[in-house]
Amino acid sequence: MRIDILTIFPSMFRGPFDESIIKRAREKGLVEIHLHNIRDFATDRHKRVDDYPFSGGGGMVMMVEPIHRAIEFLKSERNYDEVIYTTPDGIPFSQPLANRLSMCQNLIILCGHYKGVDQRIRDHLVTMEISIGDYVLSGGELPAAVITDALVRLIPGAISDETSALTDSFQDNLLAPPVYTRPADYMGWKVPEILLSGNDKQIEQWKMEQALERTKRLRPHLLRALEKEEDRTKKD
């Protein structure tokens, strides 16, 4: 997989992309992550990438030309599955969406800033708009890092135990059950006896019960979505 990120603050990614799973995946050659400074594609001597909005009011808007030049430059070298723009009014980022995007070969992620990007970029160049939550950040760099992290960990070989990612929360529209490790008894805080029993069948049943209970309590809408999906499957 190759991910090209367009930003005016490439240094913001140095920490997240130089540690842990993403670092190891890059070292193994499982993913290429390339950072591109949008200012490098500006045509004036001041490398300006923003201007006042035609509508007036406060704030600046990222200009269409530098972003268009950056995207066209990348597209001239390879085909891209998606050109993603991170924005609060995009579709909510989810595990199923992460699963789908992790199967792509080449992605562009555009990080907005200020009041956002010129709408013509969204109308003519962007193919997918993603939000990581109903709140506003200073720019799209943190959402781009979140999306990248969620995708990279799903690439086969990125994590040592590939089955671990398959049992994460949201993979089956369920939250993950509680997890424990040694010691079995710490200051009187004990691990559930079932997990020490060695009975794999009962342990799996306990995990499913815990996952269902936790999902019902904390994310009931996930269960409703699962029920609707099961109903559609039965009708088909």
Strand content: 15-25%
Q: How many domains, in number, for the residues?
A: 2
CATH topology call of the largest domain: Alpha/beta knot
Helix content: 25-40%
In round numbers, the mean pLDDT is 91
The profile of the biggest β sheet is: 5 strands, parallel
Characterize the overall form: elongated
Question: Class of the largest domain, according to the CATH hierarchy?
Answer: Alpha Beta
The chain-level structural class is alpha/beta
Can you say what the CATH homologous superfamily of the largest domain is? SPOUT methyltransferase, trefoil knot domain
Q: What is the CA-atom radius of gyration, in angstroms?
A: 22 Å
Strand order of the largest sheet: 2-1-6-5-7
Low-confidence stretches: none
What is the string of SSEs from the N terminus onward?
A: EHHEEEHEHEHEHHEEHH
Can you tell me about this structure?
With 236 residues, the chain is of the alpha/beta class. The chain has two domains: 2-152, SPOUT methyltransferase, trefoil knot domain (Alpha/beta knot, 3-Layer(aba) Sandwich); 167-235, Trp Operon Repressor, Chain A (Orthogonal Bundle), CATH 1.10.1270. 38% of the residues lie in helices and 17% in strands. It contains nine helices and nine strands. The protein has helices at 14-17, 20-27, 64-75, 95-101, 119-124, 141-152, 162-166, 200-218, 220-235; strands spanning 2-7, 32-37, 50-51, 61-62, 82-92, 106-111, 128-131, 185-186, 189-190. The chain has a five-stranded parallel sheet with strand order 2-1-6-5-7. Helix 8 crosses helix 9 (220-235). The longest helix is centred in the C-terminal third of the chain and has 19 residues, at 200-218. The two termini are 34 Å apart. The mean pLDDT is 91.
